[in-house]
Give the backbone structure.
Amino acid sequence: MRQARTIAALFAGCVAAVAGAVQAAGPLNLVCTGHGEAMASEYVRSLEWDRYDHKYRPKEGLESKMRGFESAVTLQIDGDDGRIRVPEKLIPPLNSGGDHQHWWQLENLVVSEAEIKASYRLNGLNKPKLRIDRNSGEISIKGTGQDFSGICQKIDAGQRRF
């Protein structure tokens, strides 16, 4: 009985040490470069064949489609608090937050040894979810009318790159 309690206490201590090591690692700053797609609209003028009159007729109007782009996403994580800076192309015209530099507060942030998961609110209908694989550095962000994928690199504030 006493041996079982000792083993249980050691196990609990190990679990607490591992959890503390994940949280005590200090602030985590990441820059993730990659490519994405976002919904874009444009006014289009063209000619369309009229099969009844057998001639071309002008056609104009708004056309929406997914457009690709390359950009970078920046993340700052400190314990269970974090924020993300997204490119303007991922921010819809009607949005409900962020600051003037496009930083958004991370919600439901979960940092584990294997991955980082979170979400952020762009507006009432669009709450993209992000996932970062901590082993490969791959990031994926999926939201309504947008997605982004790339590779993250850790940057240390005040440290030179080379």
About this structure: Residues 88 and 102 are 7 Å apart (CA to CA). The chain has one helix and nine strands.
